[in-house]
Each structure stands twice: as structure tokens, then as C-alpha cells.
Amino acid sequence: MSERVAILGAGSWGLAVARLLHANGHRVRLWEFDPAEHALLLRHRTHPKKLPGCRLDEQIGITNDLGEAVAGADLIVLAIPSQRMRSALDPLAGRVGPDVGIVNLAKGIEIRTLKRMSEVVAEVLDRPLGRIATLSGPSHAEEVARDMPTTVVVGGVNEEFCAEVQETFSGQTFRVYCCDDLTGVELGGALKNIIAIAAGIAGGLGLGDNTLGALITRGLAEITRLGVAMGANPLTFSGLSGVGDLVTTCVSRHSRNRYVGEHIGRGETLARVLAGMTMVAEGVETTRSGHALANRHGVEMPITAQVHAVLFDNKPPAEAVAELMGRELKPEIW
Fold first, then answer.
1. Which of 45, 253, 301, 302 has the most CB atoms at less than 10 Å from its CB?
2. For the whole model, what pTM was predicted?
């Protein structure tokens, strides 16, 4: 069934999903908030800095008008960075009907409120969670745009709506599973970016595969601890939005968060690294919110704590590694 889809946000993921959903037979309209970027996309139907080689079909609408973007939409897809989600949606408060589905693609936790993205969306648009879902999993835009086989999960509280999203997004090279653990899906997608920064720091320091394997494994353990404390199903973190996305983000050359960590590990300042980036590395601000959530729930997250100290307290990366290795000895499984 063909749907009218509004995609809000024309970063690399927004561009890739616009191409994907158009290929699946849906009528797609893409919203770009920046007038200059909007003009560039209209003129060239591609963006060489955000997603080289991804050209948008002429049938995909591109607009700078938020109201025009969502008018008549059956489904709204949010490809907006997590810390900008609230301000981007504010103009839509009271303007989105209850039957319109919302799919969030952002992987982050709002700093000010420590809310997950579905909670932010529900609050701003004043609607229940029934037709709000989050799509997550190992899915770099660079590979989705090149039709490389990709498998993700849609998390939501309403089984019927999740099935609708599954049908809308699935195609020959993009497979979607359903999960009823929205909390776990969102936490896994957000918190794994912190561990990816740690993996990048290790790489920047010249450390090896043993270190990377340990970071991924122990990172998954602390993500799961926090998730369970917040009501998530621990099994969710063994799935695509958990270990699947975690491993991919920690090892991939496409990972913005690993990139940040690598440069920090080589001695660059966070400000300098971020100033040189075109796209948003969600893990930087999620390190703040993830660290705050760990403190709120009394959950031990040593890797997150050390990444926070390196990014925001000017702690030398080598010192952070030494402290992780020198912690009190304990059993692996609690």
C-alpha cells in the first residue's frame, strides 16, 4: 500500500530513507530547514558532503516549509538530531492528527529532561505512544543508500502500528523486525554511541583488538544494566538495536562517534573535532545524558563515566584507560 510520507530532516539518514521509501513505492516529501541547503538539494538532487552518490528521484518532493512537508501525510519520519527534536517539532504542536503515524530515527536522549525520543515526541505533539515508534539497528546511511543488505528493528508499544512501519520500510535490501520493548530499543540505539566514542579513543591511542573486544562486551553490560533499571527487557540488548548496532558503530569507518573518539585519542580537543564535522555525532551529548541517567538510577557505568571525564573534564585518555583497568576485581556475571 502506497503511503504519503513526510521526512523531516535532510541529513545523510534523511536522504537515504527518502530514497529507500520512494523505491518502496511511497510518495515522499523531504523537509530541509536550512534555506541554502534546501536550494542546493533542489538544484542538484544530491548532497556531496552529507551523502555522496545518493541522488533523489525527481518525484521526491523537497521543501523548506514544515507545514507543506506534513500536509496530508499518513506517516511522518523524524530524521532530526535528538537535541534538536523538541525545537523542530514545536511548530507542529496541535497540527498533527491522531491517525498520523510517527517514526523516530534519532538515537539520543534529551539532555535537559533525560527523556527518550518517543517521550519527547509524545510530549510535544500531545499524543499517546500508540502511533509513535522508533526504528533502530545497524544501519549506516552510506550503505543503505547503496542498497547494501541492512536489517533493523522497529520498537513500539502498539503491535499493529509496528507491523505497519515494518511493511512500509521493508524492501529487497532493507529488512525490518518488530519489538514491543520501545524503551530498550531507544536506549540501545542511544547509549551505544558512548561506547563507540570509547572504541575510537582506544583506536586513537593505538590499542588493539583485545581492547576493542573488551570495550564492546563490557559496554554492552553497562548499557543492559541501565536499561533493566529503566524497565527494558534485557533480551532486547542482545538484538539488532543492542549488540548489532553496538558492534557496527564501534568498528565502522562510517561511524561519526568512533571518528570523534579516534581524534580525541590522538590528542585533539573536542571543540576542534566537532568544528571540523559536517554531520552530528549524537554520542557526544548522549554521554552527558547517559552519565546523568546512570547517576539518577544508581547504575554503575564505568566506561560511560570515563568517556564523560575525557570529553568534558579534560581527563587524559590514557589515564582513563588505566583507571578502567585498575578497578576493583569482581565476577563477570552478576
1. 301
2. 0.96
